[in-house]
Amino acid sequence: MASEVFSYESLVHAVAGAVGSVASMTLFFPLDTTRLRLQVDENRKAKSTLAILKDIVREEGLLAPYRGWFPVICSLCCSNFVYFYCYHCLKASLLKGRPSTSSTDLITGIVAGVVNVLVTTPLWVVNTRLKLQGSKFRNTDIRPTNYSGILDAFAQIIQKEGVGALWNGTFPSLLLVLNPAIQFMIYETLKRYLRREVSRELLSLEVFVIGAIAKAVSTTVTYPLQTVQSILRFGQCRTPTEKSKLLSSLRTIKTLLVNKARKHGILGIFKGLEAKLLQTVLTAALMFLLYEKIVSLTFRVMGLGNSHLKKH
């Protein structure tokens, strides 16, 4: 067990996943800014992604779409390192050289996702606040914040809201471990199928396409919960104060989804999905492409040969 947990192979996968995600998110970051505005700003009209971006640049300046880039990239780098490391450690421990299956991919993805959420949620809470700081909201009920950086945001949140506020949105985040789990299950299944058909290393375009398909499906299925997660991390909604934290979390999720549906119709809970799909599908597809190339190159440089390439 220890050999799987502390292996160079798992470290290679973790570093490759982290580097791939940072590069792809940096390229498509303005699309994520658009998605977040549509999720948390109730009074902002749903327009096309390009129209929202134009509004943001016109009202807040040319660099506004990249506001909060550094804390997001730090969080994403840590999050993907933890996820990829746990995912490949668990797979190695469970399979012990046997071929993987879709059910194994799904279970491994869920467990890795739970570990990732519990470890990195404080980083995502802080980066959500920093990314939205200074934004011009249509909703006048949103209170302005004044954080000078990541450490100051941590300190202010703990001082004013308590340590527990750093884990705002944890419950929907735990439910959302299905997102990467479904994504990895579809990606690995399609990759195994293509490799059986062509008996060679996959082309860049093939990796890009199956990464895009996997992310499109997982994002669409879990999008309403992602909206709730963003609102809770922003910390601008009133949450029920019940003795049971589980019941309180469930009631909060239900209230936010029902209010969205009442105000904007059933499609209101999917407000911002276009921007999210555009951003997340392109980002995930590029991330998987870079990840596969980095892993393949690293194993070749390390002289580990094709056996490792086939296993992963």
Short description:
The chain has 312 residues and is mostly helical. It has helices at residues 2-5, 8-40, 49-60, 69-95, 102-132, 150-161, 170-175, 178-198, 204-234, 245-264, 273-301, 306-311.
Order of helices and strands: HHHHHHHHHHHH
Largest sheet: none
Low-confidence stretches: none
The averaged pLDDT comes out at 82
Distance between the termini: 18 Å
Shape: globular
Q: Name the structural class.
A: mainly alpha
Query: What percentage of amino acids are in beta strands?
Result: under 5%
CA radius of gyration is 20 Å
Helix content: over 70%
Question: How many E-type strands?
Answer: 0
What is the helix tally? 12
InterPro entries: MCP (IPR002067), MCP_dom_sf (IPR023395), MCP_transmembrane (IPR018108), Mito/Peroxisomal_Carrier (IPR052217)
Family: Belongs to the mitochondrial carrier (TC 2.A.29) family.
Membrane topology: Multi-pass membrane protein
Transmembrane segments: 12-31, 68-86, 106-126
Structural overview:
- The chain starts with a helix and ends with a helix.
- The mean pLDDT is 82.
- It has 312 residues and is mostly helical.
- The protein has helices at residues 2-5, 8-40, 49-60, 69-95, 102-132, 150-161, 170-175, 178-198, 204-234, 245-264, 273-301, 306-311.
- The chain crosses the membrane at residues 12-31, 68-86, 106-126.
- This is Solute carrier family 25 member 17.
